[in-house]
Write a structure and sequence with these properties.
This protein has helices at residues 11-23, 34-37, 79-89, 100-112, 125-140, 168-171, 182-192, 217-230, 283-288, 299-337, 362-373, 392-412; strands spanning 46-50, 53-56, 61-64, 118-122, 144-148, 174-177, 196-201, 204-205, 213-214, 233-237, 260-263, 274-278, 342-345, 352-355, 376-377. By secondary structure, it is of the alpha/beta class. It folds into 2 domains: 11-76 and 315-412, Alpha-Beta Complex (Aspartate Aminotransferase, domain 1), CATH 3.90.1150; 94-297, Aspartate Aminotransferase, domain 2 (3-Layer(aba) Sandwich), CATH 3.40.640. Helix 3 packs antiparallel against helix 10 (299-337), helix 4 (100-112) crosses helix 10 and helix 7 (182-192) runs parallel beside helix 8. The longest helix is centred in the last third of the chain and has 39 residues, at 299-337. It is globular, with a radius of gyration of 22 Å. The structure holds 4'-deoxy-4'-aminopyridoxal-5'-phosphate. Residues 124-126, 129, 152-155, 202, 237, 239-240, 264 line the site of 4'-deoxy-4'-aminopyridoxal-5'-phosphate. 4'-deoxy-4'-aminopyridoxal-5'-phosphate binds at residues 124-126, 129, 152-155, 202, 237, 239-240, 264.
Length: 415
Amino acid sequence: MTISTPQRQLLADAALRERASAVVPGGVYGHMSVMRQMPPSYPQFYSRGSGARVHDVDGNEYIDFMCAFGPMIAGYANPVIDAAAREQQVLGDALSGPTSHFVALAELLVETVAHAEWAMFAKNGTDATSIAVVTARAATGKTKLLKARKSYHGANAWFTPAPAGVTAADRANIIEFDYNDIASVETAVAEAGGDVAAIIVTPFRHDGLTDQEYATPEFAVGVRAIATRIGSALILDEVRTGFRIDAAGAWEQYGVRPDLTAFSKGIANGYALAAVVGIDAFKQAASEIYVTGSFWMGGVSMAAAVATLGILTNGGIAAMTSAGDAFRTGIQTQAEAHGFTVVQTGPVTMPFLRFEDDAELSTVFAFTDAAIRRGVILHPWHNMFLSAAHTDDDIRDALERTDDAFAETRSLFPL
Ligand code: PMP
C-alpha cells in the first residue's frame, strides 16, 4: 500500500524561525516551542484563528486540538466575546484604575464558583498560583507548601520544573507527595513538622508524557480533611482545568471545596487574565498581601471574561464535552481498525493520547506528524484541549484526516 504524504509549504515559517533564532534565545521558548520538542512538520508561527481552526503564517489551515494550550475555550475570534472586548478596547484598557468590569467579574465568579466568596485578578496562571500561596501563608502564618511530584503550578522559581537558574533556597519550602496517594501526603505533612501553609493540587493529574489520572474521591476528600486538620489552606489549581470540567469547581462532583482556587487560561478566551477566588476565612489575609502588576487592572480582558463565562455556563461546557466524546470515540474506533492500541485518558475536554508499547514515542510522533500534514493539530505528549467552538463538522473533518494519518502510521510500522 502506498500512502500519499500531503506536502505543505512552510516557507514563511522557516524564514521566521531563522530570524527568531538570531534575536530570541532558543528561537521560541517555553511550552509553545515546537522548534525544540515537536516533529519537524509542525508550524511554529500562526497568523489567525476562527472557531476551532487556525492558519499558520504560510496560509495552511488546521483544526486545532491545542486551543492555544487552553486559553481558547469558546472559539478563536468569538464574535460575542470580541465585541465585548472591543467595546472596552476603544474606551481604553490600562487606565489609572480598574473599570466596572472588575467588580462585575468578581460578582460573576462569586456567583458561579461554588466556594468563591471573593475574587482577585492578575494576568497569568503563575500569578494566580503565587497569589494563592502568599495568601495562604499570610492567613496561616505557616511556611511550607505541599505539592504533588511532577505537578506543574507555574514558571517561577519555586514551581518551575527546570533546574537552570534556580537555587536550592528557592525550593526549600516545597515538600512533594504522590498524586492520589493520601499516605504520601501524610508523610509530607510529618516531614513539614506541622508548618504547612498550603496543599496545592490540580483537580486531576495532567502531567505531560503520562496517562492522566482523575483524583479518586478518597484522595480529594482526604486532602481536604488533612488541610482542615492541620490548619493549612487547600489550593485547587484550576489554571488548566478551569471551566472545562465544571464551572462551579472541578471537585464539586466529590462534594469537595477548596479554600482557594487559581484560574487563568480559558477564563477570558485568550485575553490575558487570571483569577484567584477564595472563601471568607482568607479574605482578610488576601487584603493584606501586596500583589500587583502594571497590566492587572486592564478592562479589556475582564470584559472578555464576563462574556466568556456567559457562554461557558450556558451550554458551552456541554458542547465541548459532546465534541470531545465524539472525537475520543472516533479515535478509538480508527485506532482499532488500523490495528493500534491507543490509550486515551483525562476528561474528554482535555484528552491525552498515547500508543501502547511506544515508550520512545516514535509511533505517536509519526501519527501526530501525519495528522499535522493533513491539517489537524494534535500533541504527541501533552494533554490537548477541546473548545465550545468545535462543531460536528470540525470533528467529522478531523476524524477523516486522522483516519488517513493512522493509515500512514501503519505503513511506517507494519503489523
Ligand atoms: N498551573 C497549571 C496547572 C498550569 O497548567 C499552568 C500553565 N500550563 C500554570 C499553573 C501556569 O500558568 P501560566 O503559564 O499562565 O503562568
